[in-house]
Amino acid sequence: RSVYDDQPNAHQRFMEKLDACIRNHDREIEKMCNFHHQGFVDAITELLKVRADAEKLKVQVTDTNRRLQDAGKEVIAQTEEIIRCRVQQRNITTVVEKLQLCLPVLEMYSKLKEQMNVKRYYSALKTMEQLENLYLPRVSQYRFCQIMIENLPKLREEIKEISMSDLKDFLESIRKHSDRIGETAMKQAQQQKTFSTALQKQNNVNYGRNMHLGRSRILESKNEITLKRTFEEDDEHEEEVLTAQDLVDFSPVYRCLHIYSVLGDGEIFENYYRKQRRKQARLVLQPQSSMHETVEGYRRYFSQIVGFFVVEDHILHVTQGLVTRTYTDELWNMALSKIIAVLRTHSSYCSDPDLVLELKNLIVVFADTLQGYGFPVNRLFDLLFEIRDQYNETLLKKWSGLFRDIFEADNYSPIPVANEEEYKIVVSKFPFQDPELDKQSFPKKLPMSQSVPQIYIQVKEFIYASLKFSESLHRSSTEIDDMLRKSTNLLLTRTLSSCLQNLIKKPHIGLTELVQIIINTTHLEQACKYLEDFISNITNISQVTVHTARLYGLSTFKDARHAAEGEIYTKLNQKIDEFIQIADYDWTMSESDGRASGYLMDLINFLRSTFQVFTHLPGKVAQTACMSACQHLSTSLMQMLLDSELKQISMGAIQQFNLDVIQCELFASSEPVPGFQGDTLQLAFIDLRQLLDLFMVWDWSTYLADYGQATSKYLRVNPSTALTLLEK
């Protein structure tokens, strides 16, 4: 540090000291070299000596090496060969070990391909699962394994697509075969029901016999029925023994379900299957527009529905989870609502009772078939009650036409019977009893006309037709009896009553026909009790049962009789008016002809002959008709006198008119209809008689003096009437 200080001569002194130090070191080096120089010289000398020996050794070593190399070449070659062989051996061992790992993989993959080729897809999926979990992880480092690993998902998708395609073919197949499946199921259900019915009848026959004997005979009967049915089926309907499995191959749906379950997509498959089946259900439930025209249309509709639910029931019982009871119940409730709506609509178009009856039978078989598969069908039987009302309506329309035809073909005259055989034929058709008539000899005439037994037969036919619908409805005999009575009441009170009323109102029906109609209704009314017995016999329900309805035929025939009676009165009056219209009085004649007018005599003869026909009528009817006719005649004659267009009447005309009234009084006093007391019928002409007596006798003083008194001789003469006639 001091060298660089600013002290004077510091650098120079430093350099001097440094030179002195260098000279000291040089002297020490020289001393050391002098000390070691001799040793160095000796070493060089020895080294030069060793040089020559080293050259000799080198030559010897080189020669030895050459000879050793020549000797070792063969060994080296053999050694290298051994090494190469050992490497090959090691490689072969390694390859064998790796092949032993790869061969099972390749075998499994080959097996997988073979299973795919023979369409054993479920087994193929199991093989894939083994490959992925067991075999491929051991050899995953090889490229072919990577290719396999990449192909497996593709194969799975291929299997899914193929199985889904098979499922679609299966769905299409069951859609095509559903009607055949349903038809077969319905036939089998019907045969089972027939068999059960036959067995039940056999049990009823054997009831009360020895139990052991009865049991044996029931078994024999059952065996006979079974054998008979079996032979019939073998001979005529071999296809009836087919089941759903025979008609449709269900393996695609099982296979597809297993495949999707293995792939973990079971829920997807279930949803797809149910969705497609719901679509098919909607198609099956959609009827043809012309279904109501023929029974075949209904049969095909029911067969398709039964086939659909038979398949679903089969799937429900042979698979787990694909179809559940909840799902089928939901589907059935939806279908049932649609079915009821369709049947309600289409059955309303049916106007043929035979078609409605066949529809009912189809619905019963349809309901029994599905009930056998566990589906609730109570609503279908409720629907049958609605259809029963419609069936009754179609029956009523049909029978209305039958009644009209019977009435139009009737001659409305008593039935002639020439001998006992003819009489028995009529009595076999209609319950007629008349002890008085039985005493008469043949030939004789029954009081009713031909329409009465025909109407009675048709009413019984109606009851039979109504009974046909009530069968197989799972109802008690009491309910069936009640149904029959109600429908028969409708026939009597509505249809037959309407036909009778229309018949009575027809213009071509004369007084004779009306009289016969009254007689006919009387006999039909008496036959109502036999109809009640008839219904009781076919339903095995006693009439004394509290809930048994009664027939309303009595009121029906009474109403018809009243209408006929009223029509008789009306037609009699109309006939009287016709005679009155042809009256031709000369109101200005000076004196009478001395005899009654011709028109009046014709009228009286007509009334006399008409009332003779009334002898078969009930007494009151004939009396009322006779009284009504006389009163109408009296009123018409009075109106003739008081006619406003008639301005002048001579005493000669009064006398002539008096002669006509006398004939009327004579007719009334002759008792044209028995049963009148005293001069009751003559009182119909009392107003005319007193008026004419007043003018014939010209007894005005008496009339005026006694006017208003109960004992007056001219009590029935009205002052205004007398004044009007007096003015004329």
Automatic annotation (TrEMBL):
Database matches in InterPro entries:
EXOC6/Sec15, EXOC6/Sec15_C, EXOC6/Sec15_C_dom1, EXOC6_Sec15_N, EXOC6PINT-1/Sec15/Tip20_C_dom2
Point out the signal peptide segment. none
> One short Pfam family name for this protein?
EXOC6_Sec15_N
Keyword Nucleotide-binding listed: no
- Name a GO CC annotation attached to this entry: exocyst
Q: Where is the Exocyst complex subunit EXOC6/Sec15 C-terminal domain?
A: 380-728
GO biological process per UniProt: Golgi to plasma membrane transport; intracellular protein transport; vesicle tethering involved in exocytosis
Which controlled-vocabulary keywords does the entry list? Exocytosis, Transport
Annotated Exocyst complex component EXOC6/Sec15 N-terminal domain ranges read 17-186
Keyword presence, Transport: yes
Similarity comment: Belongs to the SEC15 family.
What protein is this chain from? Exocyst complex component 6
Species of provenance: Spheniscus mendiculus (Galapagos penguin)
